[in-house]
Design a protein that fits this description.
- This protein has 343 residues and is mainly β.
- The protein has a domain of 216 residues.
- It has 1 helix and 21 strands.
- The strands form 4 sheets. Strands 1, 3, 4, 8, 9, 11, 12, 14, 16 and 19 form a 10-stranded parallel beta sheet that branches.
- The longest helix has 7 residues.
- The protein is rod-shaped.
- The relative contact order is 0.08.
- The model has no long low-confidence stretch (mean pLDDT 77).
Length: 343
């Protein structure tokens, strides 16, 4: 649904009436956009039958009493509600009680450029109590562009302030103000609409003791808490070129841990954008048919001889005992010793 360039959905009780303004219910399957202000003035027929100039040319949804009656109810159900360029969702009165506003099933409420959600009473500086504003976005967000005077108000002039209840995951760019805050910021005229900030208020302008309630329920989790900084310089992933790939033998493996944690399993887990891709190893064509590689630190090596069992030991020229497989051949000779004779 869209209401732009002064477009309005209006349930109105005119000036001088004491009747109850009607209700408006909007259920949008996708989004609601309210934007823009009309550059013309319209004339509507008043309670007495005469044409009355209507100076409210902002785009919006309105249940409004310009007399002494109360405003009706305004309910909007949509995933995305966008208010911009003075767009309004309003259930307010000149002197009676404000109406109730309920926004539900929200994923996002976006406020910008002097837009407002108002259940204010006593806009003509008269009596009446502010009513209730309920914004239900338990899984969504409320976002207001900073310093563009977009407000959520359930105020009264000299009656009771209303109740603003917000349920959301997080709120950005808009915050509640109390009567004390407004008195400090605007001591002469505590009207939050005159502040450039984005405010949530439920006050009584002339009776601070009658101020209402702002109840905000958000997820109390800081998404930045407990995080640590990752290393700026990526891990240097170089593969040693010393080892040659060997065919028909057991395979080896290596692991790249990246910036921390375990690497993904290529069989059961999808690759992420941080995954590294390495090319296949190119084998040395001259070594493709080798089944073994001998690494030696000697300049020269000799072929190994057949091992033969030692047959005896002998003494070499230095008198050292040496095991040998060859028995030295000695020429027979007669001893120069004369054996002793016992006879």
């Amino acid at each position: 649904m869209e209401a732009v360039n002064g477009g309005q959905i209006l349930a109105n009780a005119f000036t001088g009436s004491s009747g109850f303004a009607g209700d408006i219910t909007v259920n949008a399957t996708d989004r609601v956009t309210i934007s823009g202000r009309a550059t013309f003035k319209r004339f509507v027929r008043g309670i007495d039958g005469n044409l009355v100039e209507d100076e409210s040319a902002n785009s919006g949804l309105f249940v409004r009493s310009q007399g002494s009656g109360s405003a009706g109810k305004l309910q909007v159900g949509s995933r995305f509600i966008r208010l911009e360029n003075q767009g309004e969702i309003t259930a307010e009165t000149a002197s009676g009680n404000g109406g109730d506003i309920t926004l539900h099933d929200l994923d996002l409420l976006l406020l910008s450029d002097n837009s407002q959600i108002s259940a204010t009473a006593g806009t003509n500086q008269q009596g009446g109590n502010g009513r209730n504003i309920t914004i239900d976005a338990p899984n969504g967000f409320i976002v207001a562009k900073p310093n563009e005077n977009s407000d959520i108000t359930a105020n009264a002039y000299n009656g009771n302030g209303g109740i603003v209840k917000i349920n959301a995951t997080k709120i950005f760019g808009i915050a509640p103000l109390t009567s004390e805050d407004l008195k400090r910021l605007r001591p002469d005229d505590p009207d939050p609409r005159q502040l450039p900030t984005n405010d949530i208020t439920a006050i009584s302008q002339t009776r601070p003791d009658l101020s209402g309630i702002v109840d905000i329920n958000t997820l109390n989790v800081d998404p930045y808490r407990g995080l640590i900084n990752l290393p700026v310089v990526p891990v240097d992933t170089q593969v040693s070129q010393v080892c040659q790939a060997r065919t028909a033998q057991n395979q080896s493996s290596f692991t790249i841990a990246g910036r921390g944690g375990l690497p993904p399993n290529p069989r059961t887990e999808p690759l992420t954008p941080d995954a590294l891709q390495l090319d296949w190893v190119t084998l040395n064509p001259k070594a493709e048919n080798r089944f073994s590689t001998t690494v030696s630190t000697q300049a020269n090596s000799s072929s190994s001889a057949t091992i033969v069992e030692a047959q005896r030991w002998v003494r070499n020229a230095k008198g050292e005992v040496v095991l040998t497989a060859d028995v030295p051949t000695a020429l027979p000779h007669s001893s120069w010793l004369t054996p002793a004779s016992c006879f």
